[in-house]
Specification:
With 337 residues, the protein is mainly α. It is built from 15 helices and no strands. Helix 12 runs parallel beside helix 13. The longest helix has 24 residues.
């Protein structure tokens, strides 16, 4: 069977030990999928698996806010980031929530019929552009940690997936068929509709800290802090000038996708590490075998590649997070009925 992974060869989940194995066990119980590809591909750099899982679990699965609304937000982020794998996954998960009509409207490229879901979708799409969601949040104040955590989790996961996983969610792209995605979603419905206990993933993290103020003391905060600390450690794979280039480029990024007819990234022969990090941040779907081969050295294993991609991905997350929550840019929260 063809591997779903690009550029790396992660260990089979059955070979997992320690915390990676614990993540797979929690994913099977709380997500309904025992070997989710975004976390399997991260397993080449085991330190990243638990924080990435924790942020998704504590926001999308166990965080404040209804699951349907957060799935819509995750779909919107994935659409803005052009992550087809994740878009298909969220359509399937919306089927699992029982919102079949909504799932199929999104699958066909239509807007939600429900006004609140339409507002959530539009807001989530705009989060890719730093500071471009100035209107009030389309959810109640007490749900902000769940929605913000979900959006930021998928700005990270989208980039990892687009960098290192193929677009095919199911073999032969079967999820493109309505009966298949509906049936697959229904198979997950019991798990998706079962309440998840907040904070269950935090025991997998090493002293992550409280996290940002917007997390409001929920388990989303420590999960975000843990992913931030672990992902940014990948900066050590670059020299100082390359790190400066990544920082300045992300500081000036306006959220746009680079035009397909241009190549604004560093030359792969001269600065292959900076090129990979910036591709992961801004256009991960454009990473090629040649880009990876130019960076590979005996010391640059799959472990290093995953860390470098995670560093670039989180550099974009950090830019998005600042645009959403920094003083003076954070919009007021809209009360909803």
């Amino acid at each position: 069977m063809p591997t779903p992974f690009r550029h790396t060869e992660p260990l089979p989940p059955r070979a997992a030990t320690g915390r990676v194995a614990e993540v797979y066990a929690q994913a099977a119980r709380d997500f309904g999928i025992p070997e989710p590809a975004p976390f399997v591909v991260l397993s080449s750099a085991p330190a990243l698996v638990a924080p990435a899982w924790a942020l998704m679990r504590e926001s999308l699965i166990a965080g404040p806010g209804d699951r349907t609304g957060k799935e819509v937000a995750a779909f919107g982020v994935s659409q803005a980031n052009k992550c087809r794998f994740c878009m298909d996954a969220h359509v399937m998960l919306l089927h699992a929530t029982g919102d079949h009509a909504l799932a199929e409207r999104l699958a066909r490229g239509l807007e939600p019929a429900d006004e609140r879901h339409a507002r959530v979708l539009g807001w989530a799409r705009r989060t890719r552009v730093p500071g471009a969601a100035p209107e009030p949040f389309p959810f109640p104040p007490e749900e902000a940690a769940g929605y913000l955590g979900t959006v930021l989790a998928f700005h990270f996961i989208n980039r990892v997936v687009s960098s290192l996983v193929t677009e095919r969610l199911l073999p032969a792209d079967a999820q493109r068929l309505r009966p298949v995605r509906s049936l697959a979603g229904r198979s997950l419905s019991r798990t998706v509709r079962r309440p998840a206990v907040p904070g269950a993933s935090l025991s997998l993290l090493d002293d992550p800290g409280r996290g940002p103020a917007w997390a409001a003391g929920t388990p989303v905060g420590p999960a975000y802090a843990a992913l931030s600390a672990t992902a940014t450690a990948g900066a050590g794979l670059l020299d100082a000038s390359d790190r400066d280039l990544v920082r300045t480029t992300l500081r000036d990024w306006d959220g746009s996708h680079p035009a397909p007819t241009t190549d604004p990234f560093p030359d792969r022969a001269e600065r292959p590490g900076a090129r990979l990090a910036l591709l992961a941040a801004l256009a991960p779907y454009r990473i090629t075998d040649a880009d990876v081969a130019a960076w590979r050295r005996p010391a640059h294993t799959d472990h290093g590649l995953v860390h470098l991609v995670a560093y670039g991905a989180f550099a974009a997350v950090d830019r998005v997070e600042t645009g959403l929550t920094a003083p003076g840019t954070r919009p007021a929260v809209r009360e909803t009925s």
